[in-house]
Amino acid sequence: MYRELIIIIIVIFMIVIGNVITQNNTIEAVGQISGQLTTLRQEIEKEEASQEKAKKQMEKVEEIWKEKYCQMAFYIEHNELEKVQTELTKLKADIDMEEYAQGVENLENCIFILEHIKDKSALKVVNIF
């Protein structure tokens, strides 16, 4: 009986530690990507938005996304990550076509989905039950 109790405590402890590590990684990734997307939004909302600057900023966003995607794919539902990828692809197409109004909408959707991923994976009583 005593040995089983110790094993159960160790397993629960490992689950909590794993969740803390993945949650911190998710918060960092969402923060970095959202920050870059906010910078991109500021660039494309200027009255004389430069397509070259917007493309360079979009490349930065894609670079960070590729790096973080590989890390988050281990523990986040792929469906959620594909939604972000879809919005980023739409955003890139809008920047290429210089349709910045539509691009801002896709950018906001992308940020919303990222925040949803962060909230969904948080260790909260609501998410447990």
Give a quick account of the main beta sheet: strands, pairing sense, barrel closure.
none
Q: Structural class, judged by helices and strands?
A: mainly alpha
The H/E string reads: HHHHH
Mean pLDDT: 89
Number of helices: 5
Strand content: under 5%
Low-confidence stretches at least 5 residues in length (pLDDT < 50)? none
How much helicity do the residues have? over 70%
Termini gap: 28 Å
Shape: elongated
Give the number of DSSP strands. Answer: 0
Radius of gyration: 19 Å
Structure description:
With 129 residues, the protein is mainly alpha-helical. It contains five helices and no strands. Helix 1 runs antiparallel to helix 2 (51-72) and helix 1 packs antiparallel against helix 4 (100-120). The longest helix has 43 residues, at 2-44. The protein is elongated and about 70 Å long. It starts with a helix and ends with a helix. The mean pLDDT is 89.
